[in-house]
Design a protein that fits this description.
The protein has 215 residues and is α/β, with parallel strands linked by helices. It contains seven helices and ten strands. The protein has helices at residues 40-47, 70-80, 96-106, 112-122, 138-150, 168-185, 196-201, and strands at residues 2-11, 14-24, 29-33, 55-60, 63-64, 81-85, 156-160, 189-192, 204-209, 212-213. The chain has a six-stranded mixed beta sheet with strand order 6-7-8-3-9-10. The protein has a four-stranded antiparallel beta sheet with strand order 2-1-4-5, with helices on one face. A hairpin with a 2-residue loop joins β4 and β5. The radius of gyration is 17 Å and the shape is globular.
Length: 215
């Protein structure tokens, strides 16, 4: 599903990634751990097309990302990649359902609202569909964000500290949800996390140190 080959990235004279090689299989949940500043989020952003490597190649679903121009990369990101972030990034002026459906509208998909309602129901928040983010709890907001990531049936979902802003109960519920989605939707996840419980639950745990995968 995903392969990275000799990926490097520097900011100015500071090398952040020093030749990353990794692969992720379909339906696999891979966690990435490491100290702050080790390069975890940088790697995730490169894998998810939010940033570009200085050298090396990233291949998602057989597509070389270096072969895509800006417009093609944006379309690929919308259709093939889902994101879940620590701070939800829900648009405050829209309802839960509208937030979920926005990537589907951009992708000009059919039956977007029906799909959005089905996902909210699957994630246990269909009853909150008409509520705006400020009217939702932190756990509910994160479930809406997960539904939004799933709306276009992406090939892979990248999650950056997805439970970092949740209490222990909601964090555990979110972790269980990822594995249920993997089983029900054959979804693939790459998760950057400081949460050792989530990291250890993954099919594989990769550790980054000094810009390299060390285990």
């Amino acid at each position: 599903m995903l392969r990275a080959e000799a990926v490097t990235k520097s900011y100015g004279k500071l090398p952040v990634l020093k030749g990353i090689d990794l692969h992720v299989r379909k339906k696999e949940i891979v966690s990435i751990v490491g100290a702050s500043g080790a390069g975890k989020s940088t790697l995730l952003h490169i894998l998810g097309t939010l940033d570009s490597p200085d050298s090396g190649e990233v291949i998602v679903g057989g597509k070389k990302l270096s072969a895509l121009n800006g417009k093609a990369k944006a379309s690929f990101r919308n259709q093939q990649i889902g994101f879940v972030f620590q701070f939800h990034n829900l648009l405050p002026e829209f309802t839960a359902l509208e937030n979920v459906c926005i990537p589907g509208y951009i992708g000009q998909g059919k039956n977007v609202e029906k799909r959005g309602l089905e996902l909210l129901d699957k994630l246990g928040v269909a009853g909150r569909k008409d509520h705006k983010p400020s009217e939702l709890s932190g756990g509910e907001q994160q479930r809406v964000a997960v539904a939004r990531a799933l709306i276009n049936d992406p090939a892979i979902i990248f999650a950056d500290e997805p439970s970092g802003n949740l209490d222990s109960t909601n964090a555990r519920d979110l972790h269980d949800l990822f594995f249920r989605l993997r089983d029900e939707f054959e979804q693939t996840f790459v998760i950057v996390t400081h949460n050792e419980e989530l990291a250890d639950m993954a099919d594989r745990k990769l550790e980054i140190a000094d810009g390299m995968i060390v285990s």
